[in-house]
Each structure stands twice: as structure tokens, then as C-alpha cells.
Amino acid sequence: EVEEKNIGLPPTRKPHEWDYYVHFIGKDRRMDMWVAYDMIRFKGPDLKVEEIHDNHGFDEVSLKNHEEATKVRNVDQIQIGPHIMNTWYFSPFPAEYTKFRKLFFCEFCLSFFGHKSELARHSRRCKWTHPPGNEIYRSKDQGIEVAMFEVDGSKELVYTQNICYIAKLFLDHKTLWEDTTPFLFYVLTEVTDRGCSVVGYFSKEKSTELHPHGNNVACILTLPCHQRKGFGKFLISLSYELSKIEGKTGAPEEPISDLGQQAYNSYWKGVVLDLLADPDCKAVTISQISKRTSMTHKHIEMTLKALDVIQYDSSEGYHISVPNSLIQAHLEKKKRIAADKNRVYVRPADPKKVRWFPHHARLLHKRDRKPL
Questions:
Q1: Hey, which of 93, 136, 169, 267 has its CA 20 to 30 A from 313?
Q2: Is residue 219 within 8 Å of residue 206, measured between CB atoms?
Q3: CB distance 186 to 198 below 8 Å
Q4: How confident is the model at residue 265 (pLDDT cuts 50, 70, 90)?
């Protein structure tokens, strides 16, 4: 699929004066790109490619409307602090910013601008050094210090809307809510000499705290420039630590991206193998695993099947049987990661370092303290 745009040359144009937006049929839209005329072959063999759609929870009409509205990526690059990132998808920025192919973000308050000079002028006045919320976690691992902040969407509308604009550039099948009031945002930052710079976040609906089996994540993102450092697994692990404090099971809201699904699968396998490797867990049930990890029964069963450790016996029925080779391979992998002191890597969240109480519990406590 090819769309075209004029690159700003005089009206007496020739074909090569246009750039073309190319979508590769059958591939994810993050592979789309603008290319020059001479990079396109307009005639060639007719290739019969069956385009397979994963509806990601959308019905056919909604999916068609979504793809039409987000067909062309409107921003090519963003810069947050020293990091420049190529974007993947369309994001509904305000109309006045649609003319800019690159946007510049303040790395602390997330205000964005179309010109670098505007960001420089803003940075001289901006007094922020961290997200506008309560710090609920801080740790220092192999070459990196992180801090986590809880930001209330009802109190910080502009900040949370801006982080949603950024997230939509890298998440396709997620709805961007203009009203962030119903959500809490857990913003992960890297602590530097300049302050606490955003590297990722996850959000959750406040109302899910009232349900015993609600979603513990609505949206989750690690910025591309900070991937492969353990941030994604850290975010997932912290979401489950919060669920443990709430005393309930949790799961990510669907639809979830392909990269997000890979991260969750890896986390779930690691958590289940850690539990099965525990000498005190010689005999364990799915319900017991759920109670200790806050994972849902559905995801535990899915993980056990992926590990191929569910066996059937005619006398005992289905049971969990874990070969020692699987446990040993898992433990050796963890040792290799821990032994690599040169690797910049953050470990999963340490429950002893979490300083957090459920949102509704705080509201009830505040109400009870009010004088009659």
C-alpha cells in the first residue's frame, strides 16, 4: 500500500519530488516508512499475499475504522532528553502539531514542542526533576538506579495525557483516553545527575482495586531507547507486587501487543520456574501458585503448558511434573545474568522496597480521619 506526499518543492514538480508512505502487506504497521521515489518498483510480479489480521479484541467494523484513522504515521521521531526515537504508529496529537515530523519532549514534565529552540527555552524555566507524584519504590542495581512514582490521572491531567500521547506512538491497538481521571499511572524513571528521567510506565484503572480478579495493568510501555535493560520485566513484576498487597490476582488488560505478550510470557515462565525450583514446594497446586504469585489460573495453566510440565496419569489424572534439567537450565541462566557485572540491567521489583497502599484504602483512611 502506497500513499504519497509532496516534499515542498515548486509546483512544476516531477515524480521524484514526492515521498511515498509504504505499508508492507502482512507486516505490522511499525514497519511502515516514508521512502524516496527511486526506492519504489511500481511494476513487478503479482504476489498473492494473504493478509492475516489479529483483531486484538476489536470487532470488524471497529478494526476497520481504527486502521483507517491511524493509517499513516503522523510523527516520525521524538526526542526525550538525549534520546532520539523513531516512532511506530499514529498518535492523535493536537492539530497544531501535525505539521511537525519530529517533536521534542521535556524529559521531566513531558511538555512537547515542534522546535528544538522552544524546548531549550522551556528547559531554562522548567523546575521539575521528577514525575508529579508519590515515590513508591527506589533501588540501585547493576550500573543503574531506578525510582517509581504513582501519578493520579485526576490530579495531573496534562502530564498523564502527554505520557499517553507518547505511548500511542509505540502501541497500536490501544485506545487513548482523553480523560485520564479514572487511571493511576506508575511511572518508572532512571535516576541521573539531572533528575529522574522517564523510561517507561504502566497504568491501571482505579476501579479494578474493588474487584478480586481485576486487571492490574491497563497499558504498559518501555520506551524503545531503554529496552533490553530489564525495565519491562521490572514494570510487570511491580504490577504483581501491588496485586499481592491488594490480596488479589491480576492480569494485563487485553488486547496486548505482540512485544508485550512476549515480555509477559517470559516473566510468567520465570516466576513459575522460581516457585517450582523452591525446595519447599515439592507438591504444589495451581491455586497455591496463584496465591503466591497473584497470577490468574488462566495464565498459570497457559504457562505450565508452554513449559510442557503438565502430565496425565490414568490413576492420578493431570499433575505437574518438572524435569530437573528444566530447573537447572533456569537457575544457570539466572546465575549468568547476575555474574555479568558489566551489563546495565535492573532486576525485578524487590517487595521489601515497595512503599505503597491501595488507592481506595487511602481514600477510606482519609475519610475516617475527617472530624465529625
A1: 267
A2: no
A3: no
A4: very high
- Is the model's pLDDT at 79 over the cut of 50? yes
DSSP code at position 142: B
Rounded to whole angstroms, how far apart are CA atoms 268 and 291?
Answer: 14
Given a cut of 70, is residue 60 above it in pLDDT? no
Cis peptide before 323 (omega within 30 of 0): no
Beta-carbon contacts of residue 252 (< 8 Å; ≥ 6 apart): 215, 216, 217, 220, 239, 260, 264
Q: How many CB atoms lie within 10 A of CB 102?
A: 15
d(CA 176, CA 70): 12
Question: What are the C-alpha distances in Å from 254 to residues 29, 220, 358?
Answer: 19, 11, 23
Residues 6+ apart with CB under 8 A from 299: 251, 264, 268
Instruction: Please say if 135 is a catalytic residue.
Output: no
Nearest partner of 253 among 283, 290, 220, judged by Cα: 220
Q: Which of 60, 209, 253, 316 is catalytic?
A: 253
223 CB-near residues (< 8 Å, 6+ apart)? 80, 83, 85, 166, 170, 198, 199, 200
| Listed residue (246, 279, 301) closest to 289, CA to CA | 301
Nearest to 206 by CA among 136, 249, 152: 152
In terms of average pLDDT, the best of 48-52, 91-95, 207-211 is 91-95
> What is the number of alpha carbons within 13 Å of residue 277 lying toward its C-beta?
16
The rounded distance, in Å, linking the Cα atoms of 273 and 328 is 10
pTM of the shown model: 0.84
